[in-house]
Amino acid sequence: MTPETVNSRSPSLASHTLPRVPSIVQPVFDVSAVSLDDGLVMRMFEAFFQHVHPIPLYSFFHKASLVQRFEAGQLDTSLILSMIGMTCQLLDMGPGLREYGAACLQEAEALVLKNIGTPSVVMIQCLVLIIRHHAHQRRFRKAFMLFAIASRCAYALRLNYESPSLCFLAQESRRRLMWSLYIIDTTMAGGARELVMCPTSSIHIQLPCQERNFEFDLAQETEPLQPEPKKALAESVGSLGMYVRLLWLRHRILQTTKDAVLFGGYHVEEFPTKVHQLESELEDFEMSLPQSFRFSEKNLLLRAYSPRLCPYLLIHVWYRQLYCDLYRVTLRGLAEAIPDPEMDRMDEGFLRDCRKKCLQNGIELAEVFKSFKRSELVVR
């Protein structure tokens, strides 16, 4: 959250017509209109920052700035509605509040689209939440088209470049927002080059800093997206930076496997070489992690009571999943596998090795989930 999220021309919360919060004893959703209660808003903010904000995609908000601006009556209504809506969608906030949250998101979307001609940081922040809501509801076409608007706004505001004239907090918030768009983009594109709207060649910003430094406004330089081979990760890079780098690897893995499956020819001939290169980069990624971030039951238990558990688990789940994504196209009979005629041209020893590694990493992925389940039982 930065000063750029303020829009003094937007209607105040008190004057805006919104859906009524359903009564706790009456779970039927009531669509009659009254103003939002400040206590409810603060309750939603607390829940958002406790449970939703740690998810890498949503970590571009700065709690202290956001709450201060809300208390001063300077927070944009569409952003308040978006945050309430997403909180109600992702968490169990009480009877009828899921439907209430959906109504808030619908109203926020209407406000954003009404001002589509004047892009702003707050508009993009709202759109990230709205897009994810549509994706959660499996309205992928709408999410896809709204993302086109969000990415266009980001490039119009030059979020893909550093902004040295701004204070550190504003710079870091912009960076995190741009990387959140990149996360959505690479997830939606699924390795298809023609669907990419935020190519890494156009993103000229450093990785996000440590979460503590962002929270306490402590200026920090990090690293670019592409790492130096065999080099340990800088301590300044936070879990969001690790996650972004991992999804960058994922996109390249999916590009490689899709090319081999769909186009065959020289793509299949080059496939073993590319697999070995991507294997090496995955190994370098794991070796670059600080010891406290490597996967172990001890590190898992140390985060059992912390919001930092979510990014830690996401990184290690994705890390093992990426190995499976890299190798599974060699499994004969799988719908997404390399066609049999093309596979017949490949070295059988290489194929056996890929299948074995796919199984091994699938087992390791299952072990991550089992370890998490055991940690849940311990903390109870």
TrEMBL record:
It holds the Pfam family Fungal_trans. It comes from the Eukaryota. GO terms for biological process: DNA-templated transcription. Keywords: Metal-binding, Nucleus, Transcription, Transcription regulation. The keyword 4Fe-4S does not apply. One of its GO terms (cellular component) is nucleus. The keyword Transcription applies. GO terms for molecular function: DNA binding; DNA-binding transcription factor activity, RNA polymerase II-specific; zinc ion binding. It is found in: Nucleus. Residues 143-214 form the Xylanolytic transcriptional activator regulatory domain. InterPro entries: TF_fung (IPR050815), XnlR_reg_dom (IPR007219). PANTHER family: ZN(II)2CYS6 TRANSCRIPTION FACTOR (EUROFUNG), ZN(II)2CYS6 TRANSCRIPTION FACTOR (EUROFUNG)-RELATED. This is Xylanolytic transcriptional activator regulatory domain-containing protein. It comes from Cyphellophora attinorum. The lineage of its organism: Eukaryota, Fungi, Dikarya, Ascomycota, Pezizomycotina.
